[in-house]
Amino acid sequence: MGGGTFGNITPAAEFNILTDPVAGDVVFRSGIPIVMLGLDVTYKALIFDREVEQIRSLGSPVSIAVAEMMEFYTRQCMRCGYTTEGAHLYDPCTIAWLLDPTLFSGRKAHVTVETSGIQSHGMTVVDFDGKHTDGRCNAEIIMDIERERFIKLLMERLARY
């Protein structure tokens, strides 16, 4: 989880990659298979008040605690201007991909991390389809999520507790 074709801490850089862009660049250059769940998809993994209330209505101590955390988090997201309604579920989005990758769609790309730019420091530079890197793609960039199915999966998992 990290990166994106846009930033959230600077116009170019996402928080997780910006905290250690050299490490991010090492990972993308490593040759290991990479699936990048960045801001492009996590900003679409929103939960809304009505869904938080559905979580609360599950009635377990866990679901009530999750609902309370989501209410606080939603207020913080709105206060900071990240969203006008709802909250981005970054970590649950990543876990959902591990549980059911069919919820997601993406594109192959070649990704590097800018480590020396003044305005672009920490930017994940995404070359879709490897157009500028001789077709050498080193990552699958997840771009979309079936949000309703994602929320359903979240509810199903929380209902177990």
TrEMBL record:
Keyword Hydrolase (UniProt): yes
Source organism superkingdom: Eukaryota
Domain Inosine/uridine-preferring nucleoside hydrolase stretches: 1-151
SUPFAM superfamilies listed in its UniProt record: Nucleoside hydrolase
Pfam family, one: IU_nuc_hydro
Keyword Flavoprotein: no
Gene Ontology MF annotations: purine nucleosidase activity
The entry's keywords: Glycosidase, Hydrolase
Cross-referenced Gene3D superfamilies: Ribonucleoside hydrolase-like (3.90.245.10)
GO biological process: purine nucleoside catabolic process
Signal peptide: none
Entry's transmembrane regions: none
InterPro entries assigned to the protein according to its UniProt record, in alphabetical order: Inosine/uridine_hydrolase_dom, IUNH, Ribo_hydro-like
GO CC terms of this entry: cytosol
Family: Belongs to the IUNH family.
Name of the protein: Pyrimidine-specific ribonucleoside hydrolase RihA
Biological classification of the source: Eukaryota, Metazoa, Spiralia, Lophotrochozoa, Mollusca
